[in-house]
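Thread title: Can someone regenerate the structure for this chain?

I was given the following input by a collaborator and told the matching structure tokens would be attached. They weren't. Posting the sequence so someone can regenerate them.
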Amino acid sequence: MSLDIIKRMFISDTQRNIFQQFIEYIRFPYYKNFSEDMKINFTFPITFLVGQNGTGKSSLLQALYGAPDGQKVSDYWFNTKLDPIVDTNADGKRHCFVYSFLTPITKTSAEVLRSRILNGEDPDFWESARPQARLGMQLFNQNWQRQGESSKTRWNLIKKKVHYLDFRYEISAFDKYFYFGEEPNSSKLKTKQDFLRKMSPYIKRAHIVNLPTKFYNRKCAAPIVLTEEELLITNDILGKRYVRGEILKHNMYDVKVSGFSIILKTDFSEYSEAFAGSGETAIVKIVHEVFNASDYSLILLDEPETSLHPGAQNKLINFLLEQIKLKKLQMVVSTHSPHIIEKMPKEAIKVFYIDESTGRTSVVENIPSEEAFFYIGDYRNSKKNIIVEDNLAKMIVEAVLKQMGDAVNNLFEVKFHPGGESVIKNTYIPVYSKDEVSKTFVLFDGDQRRDHVDIEQILEVDKTVSHLNSLIRKQTGEEINFKHDSGRPEQQIPQMLSYLTYYKTKVDYLPCNIPEEVIWDEYVLSASGILKEEKATILANTNYKTKYALFAAALFGESDAEAIKKAHQYFIKRWLQTTPSTYLEIVAIINRIKEI
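Best answer:
Regenerated them for you:
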């Protein structure tokens, strides 16, 4: 329910002003191991970053953490002798990122630059820099200057509260000391257990008296008591019945490092994080942080599914969506969990991967959740996917599969991506072709039919960027862009060869030019019972899409999308009964795919 409401709230730019100072996109002219000018568009209030370990999901979260006014990227990424930061690349670009947001007063899309610069006093200094044309930015016009929104040379940074929780490392004070702390150096305290026993009374005292406590230079703050609503949410996510929960911030176990303890109470027992599951500790923290976040905050969550079973993961997402709805939050979540993303819209999912040709991180956006599973190593869906251009093509292929029987029908799932053949060629096939054993096949409309290139017939001397590009252009009718580093176009060659291989083995075409033509049957028209004059008008029209609109108007009294869909179904039913050559062609394609 919350997801549907959020979709409606975010449906257009005008309505999106509800989400104040929303980061619209972030791009990286040069940043860490990201591809040059890699861009992530935030087109939904919650964004999920999916990908294998080491693809840079946390790097993006840390850049977003450092984007608003008052925040520092260097809190998480800084220079050391062991991990030195090379300040500029071969083109002289410094590590930087550019992001856009809507200004609060004039509702202007402001693009701002955050750049790492050399500073004698601070080796990890980041500043708000002037717009640079070479970074693809529009130079600042002083006529844009607005009080409170800009200076004379640049837009002000976005003002937004940030909450960053990394659940791989957001561990309790007890776990920090017990698993990573030093053994006590004392004749009286011989083990870590001895030290924990000595310090725990001071934490317990703060819990009992609800006041801060102190032991020399070690302090424990007064407990933060979870509200009744926070407890209800925690109980719902974890399936527990807590009657009280507390968070205590202290440095009792390590004087140099502050941490937190939790105390949970049920009707039957009371225990600290020492005996709580790590999932319990994580959920108490996230519920408290997000529930108490101010409106319009930026929430960054790194692998929140850690130690949570699938049911708890789903309930956690429901809680996050409800908070987004209530507080107009912007959330970015890094995850490896299929359960977290499986019901999310494709505009909320960003897939990170290492481009084999460059060794750098790239991103694919608007990927359906079931396809994103591939990137996180989840092969739960054993079905083969058939991608088509539009909904009618989907209806036709699904009808054939059903006619072929359950044994065949259950092997396949048919999908179409809005945007048609051009989006499939430019966006999806470059991704599908990276997997040599991909179970995704493409079935274009017949008007896209072209002879397939056989890469085995390409001479080694002809495996050049220019020649392969001409073959792909001839094959697709489009100019397909492949990733490569500046000055190294040869990195495109393996991608181009994979693209052509995929096309030859996994791309096919429906009969006729368009799906409407496949199922058209004049006998169905003559047997429909509509008036003779109307039949004549339909027959005289040469545009198949118009034919169905006229037929729908004559038979159903309407020619809207729903009526035309009914007309399509009317013709499909008759088409299946007669099993013409067009039907048999599609059956042959499906049987061929079955064997691959």
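The mean pLDDT is 88.
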